[in-house]
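EI: anyone free to look at a 289-residue chain?
SC: sure, send it
EI:
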Amino acid sequence: MSKLVIGCGYLGHRVAMQWLRQGETVHAISRSSQRAGELASQGMLPIVADVSRPATLDKLPAVRTVLFAVGYDRKSGLSMEQVYVHGLLHVLDRLPDSVQRFIYVSSTGVYGQEDGSWVDEDSVSVPTRPGGITCLAAEQKLAMHEVGDLRVVLRLAGIYGPGRIPRLESMITEGVVRAPARGYLNLIHVDDAVQAVLAAERYAVPPRTYTVSDGHPVYRSEFYQHLARLCSVPAPRFQPPQVGSSKAERGKSDKRVSNSRMLQELRIQLAYPSFRKGLSAALRGIQTK
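SC: here you go
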């Protein structure tokens, strides 16, 4: 049962490698010929294409499952809407009839709650930041498309893991975290996010939406104090961003994301059910001093 990975980055590449280990045929889209060569050397069947350029998507392979995990590259010169919304529509309009499952990686940024309340798949989604707004718009376009009945939407919390711990460098080198001390962080280790994608193909009955988190929100201050201890550096100072800036708007978000549906329906046993276990694993092999 062949797969197509659109967005072979931090998450998508790990999913693709798992599928390869399971003996699956994996096609992967990349904008870069060099990157396509790397993917080919790993056993994938690369396609040089760009979701923002419809003509490059005219010969998509006949596959059963599609994973759309496209990230936003600020250097591309494109807007989030061009990538997340129009890029998605370009793909949907060119999918072969063989597709039976479309897994779309979204974000818990679709929730705009600022009062520390718990949210789940049925909570009101009124995003306030550009990323959340465009993710929700993309979800809605997918739902209205003829492929929509095949969709499984995964709303990921903040993904972290080896080589991806937000603000780690500034905390170590400057002793500063440029964010408010208060507010909940909702997290998911990349290995558990991979599990969620694999289980979404195996167990989900589309159309279905899941919030993907470890289910243990943590105050930002507690997270970085623990991270500092693991790195053997002093507890950091928190430096709130300038009022009105995009970082300040992002810092306003304050909610707790439930993972109950994911655990029950996707039958996942999280390897890292809290940030404490996940951070220790993510830091292994990293020189922090």
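EI: The mean pLDDT is 94.
SC: 👍
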